[in-house]
Amino acid sequence: MRRVLLIAAALGASTPALAETPDFEGFWNLDFGAGEPPADMVAALPGNTVIIEDTGVVEFPQGEFGGLALKPEALTRAQAWSPTDEMKLTRVCEAPSVVYSIQGPFPFEVHQTEELIVFQYEYFDRVRLIHMDGREHPPADAPHSKMGHSVGRWEGEELVIDTTHIAPSTITNNGLDHSDAIHMVERYRLTEDGQGLEAMQWFEDPQMLDNNGARYIKWHKREGQYVYPYDCDPSIALEYQQLEAFEGE
Questions:
Q1: Overall average pLDDT of the 196-208 stretch
Q2: What residue ranges do the domains of the chain occupy?
Q3: What CA–CA distances, in Å, run from 27 to 33, 113, 221, 237?
Q4: pLDDT (tens digit per residue) in 87-120
Q5: Closest Cα to residue 162, out of 149, 173, 172, 180?
Q6: Any residues with CB less than 8 A from the CB of 188 and at least 6 apart, and which?
Q7: DSSP string, 220-241
């Protein structure tokens, strides 16, 4: 018995320890000074991809799309768009899809288990499920939603999230919309001190774009904080209309 125990101990000592899964649990607030994306994240992007810079409170003016090359139909629709379109009573509280909403200035919480990771966003009170149990995306004709269907996996220290089944919505909030065929892949990782979380968001939409887009986004951790209810009030549209009427007099 003693010999068996010694052999087992020796085998255990020679077997490398399994790497711990990175811990993303907690409250994350946008880093408005994220700076340039890391070179390795840029190098990992597929070809024909442009990094657009509209993270946080930045919004492109009409006709500016950060280097994205629009298909003729998408360009025609974007050129017909007006900022007042977003302030209609029927649209002012309409949540964008995950493609646009993750780069905004609002915080989010991460709740993490081995088989499921939950992103709880303050923006429009959205909740996103990232399935880590090895499942595949549902068939193409399955229902689409603004959050889409996300499956995740670990590649070393990076969480890779693949998302499909996203309902049509905005890409840049100035008339450029994506189709329901958009495909998004995100790579998340902790900074060296564990207090920062950085991500490269990549997306393709052959129905709307001739190239692919990416965003570099970074957040910092805040202990003891939580997301608050968003509670969008559509009456802001009426106030906007009254202001427009007053300024037009």
A1: 98
A2: 20-248
A3: 18, 16, 6, 31
A4: 888 888 999 999 999 999 999 999 999 999 999 9
A5: 149
A6: 24, 158, 159, 161, 197, 198, 199
A7: EE-TT---------THHHHHHH
Dist CA 95 CA 32 (whole Å): 22
Q: Over the range 72-107, which residues count as b (16 or more CB within 10 Å of their CB) and which as e?
A: eebbeebeebeeeebbeeeebeebbbbbbbbbbebb
Query: Could you give the CA distance from residue 92 to residue 236 in angstroms, rounded to a whole number?
Result: 8
Distance between terminal CA atoms of the chain? 96
Task: Tell me which amino acid residue 161 is.
Answer: I
**Tokens read off for 209:** 């774009």
Kindly report the pTM of this predicted structure.
Answer: 0.88
118-44-52-111 Cα dihedral, nearest 10 degrees = 10
Contacts of 95 (CB under 8 A, 6+ apart): 101, 123, 124, 126, 146
Using CA atoms, how far apart are residues 244 and 85, in angstroms rounded to an integer?
13
